[in-house]
Amino acid sequence: MTEMGWISIDGDQISLDNDTVMADINSLPAEVAGALNGTEFETCVAKIGEATGKYLEKCLADYTDAEQGLLLSLVNAAANFECIQHRLAKSCNEFVSNNVRTMLGLPTGSGRFPF
Q: In total, how many domains does the chain have?
């Protein structure tokens, strides 16, 4: 992700360049970009965040508020990247599948082959 300019690492600091991420997402076909924002994406991030938060709940008590904030920020970033990866793979698969089906004169929409 550093090669894409999405994150930068300076010593022990890692930062996300949200503008670059959003510009890259918005440069994708609308069918693909739409899967990377909106309700389904937000639900994905929330589910991962909640599950990880429950897992870490016992451990967090040993950290200061500032440290907890940093840890939860990292959990949120990891959840976002996990959901981007999952939703990107799914939407790209459907996009390519629908384009191939269109070229072959087959119906599109489900992203699944009938065989």
A: 1
